[in-house]
Amino acid sequence: MSAPSPADTTDTTLHVHLIKAGRTKISYPVDLLHDDGTRVTVRGPWAGDGVRDFGFVQFAPGDVFTEHYWCDRWYSVKEVRAGDGTLKGWYCDIARPAVRTADGDIRCEDLDLDLWVSADGGQVIRLDEDEFADSGLTDRDPEAARNAVQALDNLERLAKQREFTALLAHRPLT
Q1: What are phi and psi of 168, to 5 degrees?
Q2: What confidence tens digit (pLDDT) does each residue in 133-146 have?
Q3: Mean pLDDT to the nearest integer, 9-27
């Protein structure tokens, strides 16, 4: 587990570095909204090139992501809104606990499992389980693989029980 990050940050711009298979998959600037030493919340525009169509949702230029990272949990949650503010839903990356770097940036290692929760909570979709199985993590790091599957199961349970938004609102979970 990483050490908590400082709660009083003077610079409000930082970078998120998403790591996959030991390499930086993408790095992008975001604005810091909240940092309590365990949970960091940032906001920024869609950092991908063009439109990414998943079939059940599209991420496109103009979309705004409010991203929640925890230094003690095996996932991050990204609230996705269209440019007009309409909530599209939440994209959850199953990942090792986030790390704040010495310069205040966020480093997060993706573990190939994802969850989509639609804005109305009616769609809860597990994603990329085939990629996770093919990644070799279960053999290479069985404890991390167990934590990843448990995190996916927990997020899915919260979403299906309509308790998902409590996770993001800093309210106690039931």
Answers
A1: -90, -20
A2: 999 999 999 999 99
A3: 86
